[in-house]
Amino acid sequence: MSTIIDYYFSPASGYAYLGHETLMQLARDNGATVRFRPADIDRVCREAALPQVPHTPEDTVEDRRRWARLRGLDMAPMPLHHPVDPRLAARVIIAAGELGLDQSAVALACMRGTWAEGRNIADPGDLAEALHQIDLPGCRLMAMAERNEIRDMADDIAHEVVNHEATVSPTYLLGDQRFVGQDRLPAMAETLRRAAA
């Protein structure tokens, strides 16, 4: 049975964007399955009166710039549309999973759209265009994202964020171990390697 990595993140998170492709490569290298848990983590924390700690003491433009250089990613210092409501994008990622589409590609399109392409992922037209650009059915995903069952799934993930204390985007859960922040991916890789040995 494949190891499961629960991936809690906001589709508008700069640090989730910085770690996304590294996470997916780590999962492929170790035969793990990533379970996508997208949510508006800031809103969940506010509504549940949970303290939200910053990703890192160095959560700054320069810190993101350093990580973007290290990961070879294009990244705007401050996106045109940020902060942005990520709830539609989260539901689209969930809908993609229900349709058997590539959730990783959809999540990356949302994050790259925000941080590298100047897109407003809260706008259905802009988000659909980002998906069409990678040959995914943007209009179909937009329609499915409005269905009650997808909204219910999004609500369930919001409850998980609270229950698992996944109040930083991204947070990765590997069994009962929590890895908070994309800079913890090397530690998770080592844990996966030890488990496979």
Structure keywords:
alpha+beta, 4 strands, 197 residues, globular, 9 helices, 53% helix
Description of the structure:
Strands 2-1-3-4 form a four-stranded mixed sheet. The protein has helices at 14-29, 41-47, 61-71, 87-98, 103-115, 124-133, 138-145, 148-163, 185-196; strands at 3-9, 32-38, 171-174, 177-180. The chain has nine helices and four strands, in the order βαβαααααααββα. The relative contact order is 0.21. It has 197 residues and is an alpha+beta fold. It starts with a strand and ends with a helix. The model has no long low-confidence stretch (mean pLDDT 92). β3 (171-174) and β4 form a beta hairpin.
Short summary:
Helix content is 53%, strand content 11%. It is of the alpha+beta class and 197 residues long.
Average pLDDT across residues?
92
Q: For the CA atoms, what is the radius of gyration? A: 16 Å
Strand order of the largest sheet: 2-1-3-4
Summarize the main sheet.
4 strands, mixed
Strand pairing plus helix content: what structural class?
alpha+beta
Query: Helix content range of the residues, please?
Result: 40-55%
Q: Stretches where pLDDT falls below 50 for ≥5 residues?
A: none
| Percent strand | 5-15%
